[in-house]
Amino acid sequence: MTIRALWIISHERGENVSVRFSRRFSTVEHRAKSLAGSSYVAVPEESTVLHLLLTELGLSDSGKPYVALRDDCLHRPRSPAVELHVDGPGKGILWPVLAISQGPLILACLPLVDVPSEPRPPLASLLSVSQGLTLLAGLQTFLLGSAGKPDGDGLASRLALLPSILLQVCPLGTPLDVPMLGAPAIPTVPTSVGTQKQPAWKTGTYRGRAVVNIALIETVRSMQYGNQSRQDLWDVYGTVTCKCEVEGVLPNVTVTLSLPQNGSPLQDILVHPCVTSLDSSILTASSVDSSDSSTFSGPYKFPFSPPLEPFRLCSYTSEVPVPPILGSYQLKEEENQLRLSVTLKLHESVKNSFEYCEAHLPFFNREQMGAVEVKVSTGQLDVSKEKNLLVWALGQKFPKSREVTMDGRISFAGPTSGPSDPLCTGLTAYIKLYFKVPDMTLSGCCVDQNSVQVYSSAKPRIVTSRELQSKEYFIWNSTGAAPVSSGQMML
To answer: What is the residue range of the signal peptide feature (predicted)?
Structure first.
């Protein structure tokens, strides 16, 4: 595995964004050109990379919240591996650009992919991705130290050492086994590790009561139009986060994800570099048609030697037949009034027990709200006339019918204008749902406490949890001209 280019970017509020360090490896670039042939895309200049990367990460263009290449609903980001669309001579797509961010720094690198790029191979099948992330993690520890945010002089001095450091850990663009650079985070208890090798992602050893915490969070996005001529869209993204307080230099832990008997297979699985082995069936799952009976459907076993800090063990996507809450939203203009009708239906497969559930109804590009005569079948309605916003708090349960409604009229005759939005004019409006459902996932994926195996001198306490939450969950007014693209444009 080799690296085509490496960048370290300073990005902190109140300071100019700049590339603090970059390195290209001409021998690796020559190999990339030979492998890619006519599809070769050259690495652009620093300024171009900086602009493209910040745009892709959503850290630039504050006056332009919607960027089509990044925010379109058909674009499915695969963090931390992003793609950069290069314009001009030699235009094309640089992929996979690996980027991690902590404190004032963004560390990024472009590994060499030595397999055909079309069709695009699954990230989990590329050794260069996990090794590239390991290199970035080692450099991150070296630059930020134990505090996670060194002073300016400390960071500058460590950046000055990078050229000589890279000669040792990444000669000619080929990362060796990445050592703990400089002065890493202080171990919990200083110990002698003997001849056992300390991995790059682990900065010490743990002493104390053994506890393993595993949290599974699924996030659902949805764009519902209420229009037969336009297809509703939704997707599910899951992450498994672990914190393992287990004694030993390299303790072994195995976490198993299980699906219900009729559950859809997990796809696009990415794992942390500390995972020691993975079944080949898991790696190829995302490249197999989900309707194929031979598709691997679990259980998904992840053996690993954990770092000390909390980390993301793996992430995945899942195809589910319906979104958890189906909605209908209709607005009608009557003189200077809006007649609104809303119906929200909780799907029968979803647990009817919320930590919270709210529906926000903003009204842009109008005068300030005047009279609001709106009734809801359940929950409480909060009216913010200054923001032209209705907040419908549905509480922690839907009624037995699993259906709630809102009806009424709103007039707009305030002394000032309400907030504006270039995308929502006239009857183009939406409802945005915010909710969290504890102890369930939409895919049915779960971590069984009894399946967690820990090979350590002390028997640990196992704590598992799972939850479903919403993000960018929009229901558009079916009588308005809703945009086709993702709700990210409004964030």
So the answer is: none
